[in-house]
Amino acid sequence: MGLRGPQPTPTDLLRLSGSREVNGRNDAPSLPGVPEKPEWLTGRGAEVWANYVGMAGQLPRLLAATDGNALAAACCATAMVERVARELNEQGLMVPDEKAGREVANPLARTLREWLETSCRLWAKFGATPADRVRTGSAGAVGAPKLGLAKFTRG
After folding, report:
1. Is 23 a domain residue?
2. What is the C-alpha to C-alpha distance for residues 124 and 132, in angstroms, rounded to an integer?
3. Residue 138 burial by Cβ neighbours in a 10 Å radius (0-12, 13-18, 19+)
4. Which candidate, 85, 84, 66, 81, places its Cα nearest to that of 128?
């Protein structure tokens, strides 16, 4: 069974937000700096990486040199969301099922939902939504990271 409750906010982020909870905390300090992009992250994932690192660089101490793998996973998930969404748009929401002799829901819709959930969960660690930016103490400092997902969402 997993741990209960929200994950504790890192001390560096509490300090950035001016929180009084910093007093008495003794977290291991994060290694400041921009993480190095893994060699395996290529294509659209690498573009998302460059876009986010460029924006996150405006916020001191939001990224640490040790965040490389977590950030790469978020970038990779975003690239997969875009890829699956393109395929789903081409194929449509319903596809023929020869066994059943009728149209059924495209399995890519479920795949897209799973990748969106994964992507959102990973990006939450880096302040991708307004609520996450409040949690990370970066609200108002920079707009929402443009991850290229706007064309796949309503609104």
Report:
1. no
2. 6
3. buried
4. 81
The answer to whether residue 4 sits within a structural domain is no
Q: Does any domain span residue 26? A: no
Q: How far is CA 92 from CA 33, 38, 85, in A?
A: 43, 34, 10
User: Cα(154)–Cα(61) distance, rounded to whole angstroms?
Assistant: 32
Domain assignment present for residue 57? The answer is yes
CA distances from 136 to 64, 79, 122, 150 (A): 13, 24, 14, 22
The CA distances from residue 155 to 60, 84, 85, 150, in Å, are 31, 20, 17, 9
Tokens of residue 46, six digits: 């690498």
Cα four-point dihedral sign 72, 148, 117, 33:
positive
What residues make up the domain containing 65?
33-148
pLDDT, averaged per 10 consecutive residues of the chain (155 residues), comes to 68 73 66 87 96 81 85 96 97 91 94 96 81 59 48 49
Predicted TM-score (pTM) of this structure: 0.70
